[in-house]
User: What shape does this take?
Amino acid sequence: MEERERIGFIGLGIMGSGMARNILQAGFPLRIWNRTASRMDELATAGAGPASSPGDVAFHSDIVITCVSDTPDVESVILGEGGVIHGARPGSLVIDMSTISPQATQRIAARLAERGIHMLDAPVSGGAEGAARGTLSIMVGGDTRQYERALPVFRAMGRTITHIGPIGAGQTTKLVNQILVVGHALAMSEALLFAQAGGIDLHKALAAVAGGAAGSWMLSNRGPQILARDWRPGFTIDLQQKDVRLALQEADRLGVPLPGTALIHQLYRTLQARGLGHEGNHALVKALENLAGIEIAAWDDGQ
Ligand code: NAP
Assistant: This one.
């Protein structure tokens, strides 16, 4: 039987913990590292090997995956002190599955290439649910041979896996995704607020429209959370703002106007200013509630 590549996973947050668990369940040998060490406990109990640093993960792995918050965090775990670059061997592969700047991704890949280390960018969409269930959409940039090498691991984590183009192309696609996500969030927020003002049963309204042309992942997954006023994050406002900022910066570089996305950036900022950055991105509706002076309060759905 062909020997399986040894996988390393760095960053066991909302996304990384589910993704790493699915890699382990698919039968890959797995090394893990998380800045807050206690977050490694559950996976270690399930059979993963805890490491002492990102470099230590890389030393014991053929393929190292990173899933941390923002561009400086990826730079830190890959290029910083004790980082992946200091433990990885030539020929090994680094896959960054965080959402970060496409330009920075190309710079990191160039630094790794100087040491003969390959890199793919492979950001994901599908939320915490997709990470836990192994149904993520994965958008990949980088060399075709490395993409093919990584496919068995991607298949453990995702369902729709697309090789888009050269390094950075995955991140550019993810920003396309994020422009759509926040647009859907705003449409959902306005629609539910309008339904509230119109005095209709919000549960029935949601059931009536979710399966038709107006339906979206956002509406089906986060609409019910809004009706329950459940602001627990699948994706926090702070991270959402990071992605909107990346999209606006890239649009600025490309000279493309994104008026709707820029407006949503400002609406989220009002929530951050109120200390709500840790809430889920569907809490965008609170910014509109604030403007309208009404709150969504779903009728009892009889359950
Ligand atoms: P999260 O729950 O906040 O987890 C962030 C992870 O990154 C934690 O493990 C954190 O370690 C680690 N980290 C952050 N800064 C670090 C640093 N400087 N050094 C070392 N570790 C660091 O975030 P998440 O929701 O899993 O998101 C992770 C990435 O996936 C982000 O780029 C996000 O945009 C992207 N993403 C998220 C979703 C979603 O729905 N949540 C969907 C698609 C893509 P600690 O435990 O020590 O804090």
Q: What stands out?
A: Residues 11-16, 34-36, 39, 67-69, 73, 76-77, 98-99, 124-125, 127-128, 234-235, 239, 243 surround NAP (CB under 6 Å). The CA atoms of residues 119 and 182 lie 29 Å apart. The domain at 7-166 is CATH 3.40.50.720 (Rossmann fold). The chain has a mean pLDDT of 96.
